[in-house]
UniProtKB/TrEMBL annotation:
Annotated TM spans: 87-108, 136-157, 187-205, 248-271, 283-305, 335-359, 448-467, 473-495, 507-531, 537-558
Source lineage: Eukaryota, Metazoa, Chordata, Craniata, Vertebrata
Gene label: CLCN7
CDD domains xref list: CBS_pair_voltage-gated_CLC_euk_bac, ClC_6_like
Gene Ontology MF: a single term: chloride channel activity
Domain (CBS) ranges: 702-760
UniProt protein name: Chloride channel protein
C-alpha cells in the first residue's frame, strides 16, 4: 500500500477503517487496536496454539561499534556512579512500593469499615422488626455497585490490569513483552481496581496485585520517564535497555511480595523462583535491599497511622499474628498428619485449577466484550453477598461475646451477649477472616459452620479468579485452607477424645499452606513467606513437607494456576529446561526459514520494503557480506534489529548524505536510547523516491558478533544457549558460515511435553 508514502505529522490522521489519531511515540500495536473489528459471538480458542502477537525482550546487548566506543570512554569512576545509581533506584523502588501498599491498606480499611458498619446497623435494625431482605438488598447493591466501578475501569481503560498480574510479570521476566504491562496507567488502574474489588466484598485478596504494582514502579523509576504522562525526566538514561529494565522489574516484584506479606527474604526467593530468568549475587543483594526498604516503609507509615509511632509491629499488609512456640510445638507423630494434609491440599488445588481452566476457556470464548465482563463481575459480587447473607441467616452457631475480638459482631437470632460465628468468616475482609481462623481459641467455631464455609468459599473464589477485576488469589486460597485445616484439627480432637495436642490454629496454618501450595505450586518462596508471616521458625519443616506434598500431588493432575493462565493466553513461555525427550530434534528442524538477510551496504528502498512487509514482520535481520558478484561466500557479518533500522531511516543516515556532509553529526547511542522502548512504526517514516535509491551502511550499527549455532546442534543445546543468555535471535549457520535459518522464541516454545510425549503447537497470528 502507499502507507509508507504518507507524510505523518503527529496531528495528522491515518485512515484505517476509521479516523484515529496516531502519535509517533505510540506502539504499532496501538494502531491495530483502534480498528473496529466485527466481534463474533464466539471466539474459537484452542489451548494448543502459540500466539505470535507477543514480542520478545532482548536481554542480550547489541555490541555494535557505538556501544563499544561508549563503554570504552566510560572510566572506572563513572562506572561507580552507575552502580550508586542502581542502589538509589532500588531504594526508591522499595519506598514507593511500601507507600502504595500503605495507600491500598488504609483506603480499604476505611471503606470496608464504612460498608460493614452501614450493613451491620441495618441488620440490627431489621432483626428487631422483621424484613431482613432489605438488609440483603442493601448489602448486595453496595457490593455490586462498588465492583461495577472497579470492573468498568479495568475492562474499558486497561485490560492488562485484570487478575493478579503475577502471570504477566512472570512472562515479562521470562522475556516476553506483554503490551502495556509496566505502564503508569496500568498501575493507577491496578491500585484503584484492587481497592474497589476488596471493598466490594469479592473473594479476593489485595496481596497478589502488589507484585504487579511493584514491578510497574520499578520499570517506571529505572527508565526515568513515563509514556503515559508523555514526560521525560532526563535521568537514568544509561538504563534504557531491556537488560537493565528487567533486572529492576525483578527487584520491584520482590518489593511487592515483601510489602504484601512482610516477608523480605520471601520476596527475594519469590523473584528467584517464579520470576527472574537471570541471576547473579550483586543483583540478589540489591533485590534484598529493595525488599527490606519496602517492608520498613510500610511498617513505619502504618505504625504512625495507627498512632504508635515507635512501635514497628505491622510489617506486611497481611499479618498472620504471632504463633507462640510454647503452646504451638508439634510432635513427631503429627508429621504423617501434616503430610496427609498436603495430599488433600494438592487434590483440592488441582480441582480448583481444573474448574478455573474450564471457566477461563468459557470466558475467552463467550465473555470477551467489555460490557459483558462488567455484568459478570457485578453478578459475582451480588451472588457473593447473597451467599454470605444466607449462610449467616441460616447458621445457628452462637458464641459468647466476652473475651472475643470480633470486629463487626452480628447478633441476628442469637441471645443477648452472643454473636453469630458464621459472620466472623463472611462478614469481614478476607485478611481478617484468615487471622481469626488461625488465632481464635478452640471451640470458637462449629464444625458444620466451617464445612459449609469451605465449600461455598471454594466455589466463590474459583469463580472470582479470572474476572475482569484486579484481584489476587493468595488470600482466598489461604482462607479456604485455613477453614478446612481448622475443621481437620477439630475432628482430630473429637476422634482422640482429647483436645490437648490438637490446637486447631496449628492445623489451620498447615491447611492454608497446603491449599495455597496446591493452587499456585510455589515451594521455596512460599515456605519462607509463611515462616516470616507467622514469625515462627519451628514450623519451617512441617510447612516445607506440606508444600512439597501438595506440589507433587497437584502436578500429577494439572499444572499450577499461573502457568495455566500463561498457557491459556498462548504466550511463548520458555521453561528452565527443554522438554526431556527432545534430543532427537536438531536446529535444522526447529529453525525458521527462509531468512530475510540484508547486505552490509544496502539500498534504502530494499530496507523500507522489507520493514513494511506485514506478512513477515521480522525483528532481527542477519547482515551478510555485500559484494555478491565475486566468487566469495556471502558469509554472516552481523545482526541488526528492526528498531535500529528504523532509527537509521528516521535520522536519514545514508552513505550519499554523509559524503555530501548533509548529516549533522554521527549518530550516538543516545539516539537509540531516546527511541526505546516504543520505536515508531515504519509507516510513520517518510522516504522519498530519490532517497530510496540511496545506500545505507550498516557496519557500525550492526552487532558484529551475534551468537550462532551449527545446524546439527540438538534442541536441548540450542535451548540452553537461548534461555541462559536471554537471546531474542539465534542465527543458524552451515559449515561455510552462510545463514541457513533463524531460531526465535516461538520456535523453541512450541515444543511441549504433552500426555503422549512431545507435541508441537501450531502458531496463530492472533
Amino acid at each position: 500500500g502507499n502507507e509508507s508514502d504518507l507524510k505523518l505529522t503527529p496531528s495528522s490522521f491515518l485512515r484505517i477503517g476509521q479516523l484515529s489519531n496516531v502519535d509517533l511515540n505510540e506502539d504499532i500495536h496501538e494502531l491495530e487496536t483502534e480498528v473496529p473489528r466485527q466481534r463474533p459471538n464466539e471466539i474459537p480458542h484452542n489451548e494448543k496454539l502459540l500466539s505470535l502477537k507477543y514480542e520478545s525482550l532482548d536481554y542480550d546487548n547489541s555490541e555494535n561499534q557505538l556501544f563499544l566506543e561508549e563503554e570504552r570512554r566510560i572510566n572506572h569512576a563513572a562506572f561507580r556512579t552507575v552502580e550508586i545509581k542502581r542502589w538509589v533506584i532500588c531504594a526508591m523502588i522499595g519506598i514507593l512500593t511500601g507507600l502504595v501498599a500503605c495507600f491500598i491498606d488504609i483506603v480499604v480499611e476505611n471503606l470496608a469499615g464504612l460498608k460493614y458498619r452501614l450493613v451491620k446497623d441495618n441488620i440490627d435494625k431489621f432483626t428487631a422488626k422483621g424484613g431482613l431482605s432489605f438488609s440483603l438488598l442493601l448489602w448486595a447493591t453496595l457490593n455490586a455497585s462498588v465492583v461495577m466501578v472497579g470492573s468498568l475501569i479495568v475492562a474499558f481503560i486497561e485490560p492488562v490490569a485484570a487478575g493478579s498480574g503475577i502471570p504477566q510479570i512472570k512472562c515479562y521476566l521470562n522475556g516476553v513483552k506483554i503490551p502495556h504491562v509496566v505502564r503508569l496507567k496500568t498501575l493507577v488502574i491496578k491500585v484503584c481496581g484492587v481497592i474497589l474489588s476488596v471493598v466490594g466484598g469479592l473473594a479476593v485478596g489485595k496481596e497478589g496485585p502488589m507484585i504487579h504494582s511493584g514491578s510497574v514502579i520499578a520499570a517506571g523509576i529505572s527508565q526515568g520517564r513515563s509514556t503515559s504522562l508523555k514526560r521525560d525526566f532526563k535521568i537514568f538514561e544509561y538504563f534504557r535497555r531491556d537488560t537493565e529494565k528487567r533486572d529492576f522489574v525483578s527487584a520491584g516484584a520482590a518489593a511487592g511480595v515483601s510489602a504484601a506479606f512482610g516477608a523480605p527474604v520471601g520476596g527475594v526467593l519469590f523473584s528467584l523462583e517464579e520470576g527472574a530468568s537471570f541471576w547473579n549475587q550483586f543483583l540478589t543483594w540489591r533485590i534484598f535491599f529493595a525488599s527490606m526498604i519496602s517492608t520498613f516503609t510500610l511498617n513505619s507509615v502504618l505504625s504512625v497511622y495507627h498512632g504508635n509511632a515507635w512501635d514497628l509491629s505491622s510489617p506486611g499488609l497481611i499479618n498472620f499474628g504471632r504463633f507462640d512456640s510454647e503452646k504451638m510445638e508439634y510432635t513427631i507423630q503429627e508429621i504423617p498428619i501434616f503430610i496427609f494434609m498436603g495430599v488433600v491440599g494438592g487434590i483440592l488445588g488441582a480441582l480448583f485449577n481444573a474448574l478455573n481452566y474450564w471457566l477461563t476457556m468459557f470466558r475467552i470464548r463467550y465473555i470477551h466484550r467489555p460490557c459483558l465482563q462488567v455484568v459478570e463481575a457485578m453478578l459475582v459480587a451480588a451472588v457473593t453477598a447473597t451467599v454470605g447473607f444466607v449462610m449467616i441467616y441460616c447458621s445457628r452457631d452462637c458464641q459468647p461475646l466476652q473475651g472475643s475480638s470480633v470486629a463487626y459482631p452480628l447478633q441476628l437470632f442469637c441471645a443477648d451477649g452472643e454473636y453469630n460465628s458464621m459472620a466472623t468468616a463472611f462478614f469481614n475482609t478476607p485478611e481478617k477472616s484468615v487471622v481469626n481462623l488461625f488465632h481464635d481459641p478452640p471451640g470458637s467455631y462449629n464444625p458444620m459452620t466451617l464445612g459449609m464455609f469451605t465449600v461455598m468459599y471454594f466455589f466463590l473464589a474459583c469463580w472470582t479468579y479470572g474476572l475482569t477485576v484486579s484481584a489476587g488469589v493468595f488470600i482466598p486460597s489461604l482462607l479456604i485452607g485455613a477453614a478446612w485445616g481448622r475443621l481437620f484439627g477439630i475432628s482430630l480432637s473429637y476422634l482422640t477424645k482429647s483436645s490437648i495436642w490438637a490446637d486447631p490454629g496449628k492445623y489451620a496454618l498447615m491447611g492454608a499452606a497446603a491449599q495455597l501450595g496446591g493452587i499456585v505450586r510455589m515451594t521455596l518462596s512460599l515456605t519462607v513467606i509463611m515462616m516470616e508471616a507467622t514469625g515462627n521458625v519451628t514450623y519451617g519443616f512441617p510447612i516445607m513437607l506440606v508444600l512439597m506434598t501438595a506440589k507433587i500431588v497437584g502436578d500429577y493432575f494439572v499444572e499450577g494456576l499461573y502457568d495455566m493462565h500463561i498457557q491459556l493466553q498462548s504466550v511463548p513461555f520458555l521453561h528452565w529446561e527443554a522438554p526431556v525427550t527432545s534430543h532427537s530434534l536438531t536446529a535444522r528442524e526447529v529453525m525458521s526459514t527462509p531468512v530475510t538477510c540484508l547486505r552490509r551496504i544496502e539500498r534504502v528502498g530494499t530496507v523500507v520494503d522489507i520493514l513494511s512487509d506485514t506478512s513477515s514482520n521480522h525483528n532481527g535481520f542477519p547482515v551478510v557480506e555485500s559484494n555478491p558478484d565475486t566468487t566469495q561466500v556471502a558469509g554472516l557479518r552481523g545482526l541488526i534489529l528492526r528498531s535500529q533500522l528504523i532509527v537509521l531511516l528516521k535520522h536519514k543516515v545514508f552513505v550519499e548524505r554523509t559524503n555530501l556532509s548533509l548529516v549533522q553529526r554521527r549518530l550516538k547511542l543516545k539516539d537509540f536510547r531516546d527511541a526505546y522502548p516504543r520505536f515508531p512504526p515504519i509507516q510513520s517514516i517518510h522516504v522519498s523516491q530519490d532517497e530510496r535509491e540511496c545506500m545505507i551502511d550498516l557496519s557500525e550499527f550492526m552487532n558484529p558478533s551475534p551468537y550462532t549455532v551449527p545446524q546439527e546442534a540438538s534442541l536441548p543445546r540450542v535451548f540452553k544457549l537461548f534461555r541462559a543468555l536471554g537471546l531474542r535471535h539465534l542465527v543458524v549457520v552451515d559449515n561455510r558460515n552462510e545463514v541457513v535459518g533463524m531460531v526465535t522464541r516461538k520456535d523453541l516454545a512450541r515444543y511441549r511435553l504433552g500426555k503422549e510425549g512431545l507435541e508441537e503447537l501450531s502458531l496463530a497470528q492472533t
